[in-house]
Design brief:
Number of strands of chain A: 11
Oligomer: homodimer
Order of helices and strands of chain A: EHEHEHHEHEHEHEHEHHEHHEEHH
Structural class of chain A: alpha/beta
CATH topology of the largest domain in chain A: Rossmann fold
Distance between the termini of chain A: 82 Å
Strand content of chain A: 15-25%
Strand order of the largest sheet of chain A: 3-2-1-4-5-10-11
Number of domains of chain A: 2
Shape of chain A: elongated
Number of helices of chain A: 14
Chain lengths: ~400, ~400
């Protein structure tokens, strides 16, 4: 192990917000305060843009009360960017690091961020500039390699579970169909969390569709028809990223209007209600067309940006996010030169995690998807193994009650 | 005042769910248990359908623990319907009341329910059948006459305020536009609640559009352009019910696809993302077309059914909802023959309410809208008077923190 080196530290956050990114960087600050070799602790504003523009906030000048309040605050007070640095940006960042004796870099983000850090790390080595580079996991998608789960997932999953508890009961009042579209382009973990609030076998979501499974519109309609005939209602959770067998997004298959591209040139999935609306129309045509119901009550909601930013952190997620940040700082202080800070589960009952430092390259640019054992055989639900995996991550939910319908008044 | 009369009581719930309808009917049950003249306490399943079909659950047979858990549970365990009873249905209901010596009727609902109860009440009088008929206010729209505010509004407003706190911070990370569409066909109270989470003048929503004000697409684009130029971002709250000066819903003005009708034959506003998508496209064309931004980051979410069913009751709303139910039971036990149970505010500081029994006809079929003093002069925001009015209703929110951006690192 290398010894530590005296210099400044920079923390930046990158990619889509979660409810606990602030908690993580506050954790990094808490850890760094204990390291005598770390002189300045700076926050770059807007991710790597802040580094290139030398736009830094002095985090040691923030009051303890401010940091405490920020740790409860969703999204990231350091702001973000989706820019992936190229050759030129890497040079510029290294110049800034050298100019200001920045020796410790902490990037909180997903696999893109890990990849960027890996490239910067290699470039620093080429220049023989001693730099400590740490990636700290973050993403509501829960799709990072080396992690049992990622900070941010638990809170978003808590929201999705709670939202489905509510809309299931709402739907129960009138019957009919309800579709809720959840975030997740390639990984279905967040959509799968819709199952975590079920209290009885009658509770929705009755069907769950994940991007890991090819989505077939005909099978979908048949699945829904079956549930509808049994319960006179059907609550459905759908990942925004569902694709047909040719990997064409279903949003694109169903869409009649103009589709926008996101910053990576992919079809923009979030921030539009078109997928839910398209699926609702498809089911309406099927069920009304077959005469199963004359006038179908059908509603489609897209959970959108609220699911990743709702100010209700999972207590478990919060605690782990702070601790993982502190772990990153401790790694840097104990002579580690680089790595990705990840969560490992060491025990299921009782639920217990540890942190590890994984090689940056193991996380960089790779995507983890739902493993087969979490997906039900019919490809329209999750398994008990998934429930057991995910339940500890979202914290306690308010227990809800149900009327004992067996106590009928008889005459 | 008439004396009480021995007989059974029926409780039913009608119309759209809220987070606290169960709390209200549990409150009614708690009150009725103390009345010796009330023999059976029955819950009709699916509103007036349950009365007509004699489908009753014995609420005295539910355990205290079940009732407690139900009081925390969103939507209504008694289920609902949107059916408005006609002549025939009224006769059928009265037949059922007479057949089973039902003397106390409690209907929890909005102005439609109040109207139905008023008609049943008149019909009972015509038959000279002694019946006690009570309406208990409920609606997330907060649009009932005689009420300072209605049970259900506080919890839905709490959700909307919290959701906007989250999406405002999410939007702050990247900049660009964000539109959140809230429920409210004629009354803007729920959309207005988006302002309740603002902590600083920079916080969104920066613009709020209510159904009380004629909506003009050109003025809208200009409003947004102005905010965008100032902040490089803009968060916008929009009521689903916004209409142009000819009272055509904007959803209809913008829509290219097929529009569904709701159970009253109006254009279905909820359960579709079309309005948000249409407004986003309109702003994109305006801002990109004028060259103000080359590629606009713009997202539209429709809050949908989650906003009225999210399992996070406002503590104030919960307490008042239970108490209003108990008040209804007490009214019936103290010889009142009919009326609508309403919330009156007796003091702003400290916030304090009382309950009153208003004539059914004062509430029946009427809609309260946002008063002029709650709407900002530019018709794109709310006033401080609204904030003062609504803030006590949603309960405490977790305080959020903000980085002190003045503490820049200087070189």
């Amino acid at each position: 192990m290398a010894s530590t080196i005296q210099g400044n530290a920079v923390i930046f956050t990158q990619g889509g917000p979660t409810a606990v990114i602030n908690a993580t960087w506050v954790g990094v600050v808490q850890g760094l305060i204990l390291c005598k070799d770390v002189t300045g602790i700076w926050g770059a504003i807007n991710g790597i843009d802040g580094i290139m523009n030398e736009n830094f906030i002095d985090l040691k000048e923030q009051t303890a009360g401010t940091l405490q309040a920020i740790s409860y605050t969703p999204a990231t007070q350091l702001r973000s960017t989706r820019r992936k640095p190229g050759q030129e940006e890497n040079c510029r960042m290294l110049d800034v690091f050298q100019k200001h004796n920045i020796r410790y870099v902490f990037g909180i983000g997903g696999n893109d961020t890990s990849e960027s850090l890996d490239i910067i790390n290699d470039a620093a080595r080429d220049r023989e500039y001693e730099l400590r580079v740490f990636h700290v996991a973050k993403t509501v998608d829960n799709d990072l390699m080396e992690n049992d789960h990622t900070p941010g997932y638990g809170s978003a999953a808590r929201y999705v579970a709670n939202a489905f508890r509510g809309v299931n009961l709402d739907n129960q009042c009138f019957g009919g169909l309800y579709i809720g579209v959840c975030m997740g382009r390639h990984a279905g973990f967040l959509t799968a969390a819709s199952a975590l609030g079920r209290q009885s076998p009658e509770d929705g979501p009755h069907l769950i569709y994940l991007p890991e499974c090819p989505f077939n519109l005909e099978k979908f309609a048949k699945d829904v028809e079956e549930v509808y005939k049994r319960h006179n209602r059907c609550v459905i959770a759908v990942s925004e990223g569902i694709e047909d067998e040719n990997h064409t997004p279903i949003l694109q298959v169903l869409s009649t209007g103009r589709l926008e591209a996101d910053s990576h040139g992919n079809v923009q999935l979030s921030g539009t209600g078109a997928l839910a609306d398209g699926l609702v129309n498809h089911l309406r045509e099927h069920l009304e067309g077959k005469g199963i119901v004359k006038k179908l009550r059908a509603r489609g909601d897209t959970f959108g940006y609220v699911q990743r930013s709702f100010p209700d952190q999972s207590p478990v997620d919060r605690e782990e996010s702070i601790a993982l940040g502190t772990f990153a700082a401790e790694c840097s202080a104990s002579g580690n030169i680089d790595g990705s800070c990840a969560i490992v589960r060491v025990s299921d009952r009782p639920y217990k995690v540890e942190f590890k430092l994984a090689p940056l390259k193991n996380v960089a640019g790779k995507t983890r998807r739902m493993p087969a054992e979490f997906i039900a055989a019919g490809q329209n639900d999750v398994t008990d193994a998934f429930i057991e995996y995910a339940k500890p991550l979202i914290g306690e939910l308010t227990p809800l009650g149900a009327l004992d319908m067996s106590k009928k008044v008889t005459f």
